[in-house]
Amino acid sequence: SVAQGRRHARYVSRVRTKATSARSSLGNFAAVRQGFIDSVGNTPLIRLNKVSQATGCEIYGKAEFLNPGGSVKDRAALYIIKDAEERGLLRPGGVIVEGTAGNTGIGLALVANAKGYKTVIVIPDTQSQEKKDMLRIAGATLIEVPAVPYKNLNNYVKYSGRLAESIAKTHPGGAIWGNQFDNTANRKAHYETTGPEIWAQTGGKVDGFVCAIGTGGTLAGVGQYLKEKNPAVRIGMADPMGAAMYSYYATGVLQSSGSSISEGIGQGRVTANLQGWGVPTREGGSVDFWCQVSDEEALPLIYDLLKEEGLCMGGSTGINIGGAVKLAQELGPGHTIVTVLCDLGTRYQGKIFNVDFLKSKGLPYPQWMEAGYLNPR
Ligand code: PMP
After folding, report:
1. What positions belong to coiled-coil segments (predicted)?
2. What are phi and psi of 373, to 5 degrees?
3. pTM for the structure as a whole
4. pLDDT-derived band at 356, boundaries 50, 70, 90
């Protein structure tokens, strides 16, 4: 209607006035991010109050769930695509193929949308429905494959590598394989962004950094940067119970036993992202603390964080916080430790916030969850 049109015109002129004054007072819209890609990174550090109080340390979580694609993997996705562009491997309409537990795929699909590429994502069928749904919403072509070990030719990583090769042969825009495990553009993202951010945000007063290994990109990239700034910073690795990296760090032998419901972490081999820095060497100077965290330890941390501090986190974050607590106990009170809040718990609603699922796995859940589940408010 005419009235609506006038109201709209008034609205637009008001917004324009505001924008003009913002421009004059802020110079160049300092706070505005220019689209998805410009919004990756620069996440806050959040003090984790309960575990800080319990350990007498200052434990902070790097809020990677606030990246625009919702996880720590947005950083790696952006660097992998930028790297391929710089090498001249991607042309408009080109395809990015990747094997992923989900988050890297989500990051790649969204960066691809912002830059005019397509994505084909290969995912083990055991990963959460919420991540698969998000990949489809983002427009990725999703291929679900049975979850089989890396040594199997049909493992999702190897499958995605072969698929990339065959698409590249025929697709006019070209195709690349993200190859996040062995593509060190992943580690570089954390060396150039996450690490420097943590250093700046703590004013260099960081005594320890700890996280789990999926590809190893976060651990090696952040660890290497912080150690270069201050060799005394302790870099810790938290392994979900049963994964092979703990045994590798402790004994030099990759041996897995047991299992975890956490997703996106729990590596069975020394990836290229870990080689050269992320595994302990005789000379030292690399990762210098390692521990295992069970689901029984990690889940209560997640539930308390939601119920008492309002932060709803995914399972790998529980492993990370468990590792931060163990490093805090090792260092003693008065230290500052940073870990990673990888993604939101809503990405695993049907699993770690589902009483039936937890019961079926024989895992602990708080009484309030059952009450909330049966009697939704
Ligand atoms: N947590 C979640 C939820 C993830 O998806 C990933 C990535 N696979 C990680 C942690 C581990 O990060 P990175 O690959 O850098 O080791």
Report:
1. none
2. -70, -45
3. 0.91
4. very high
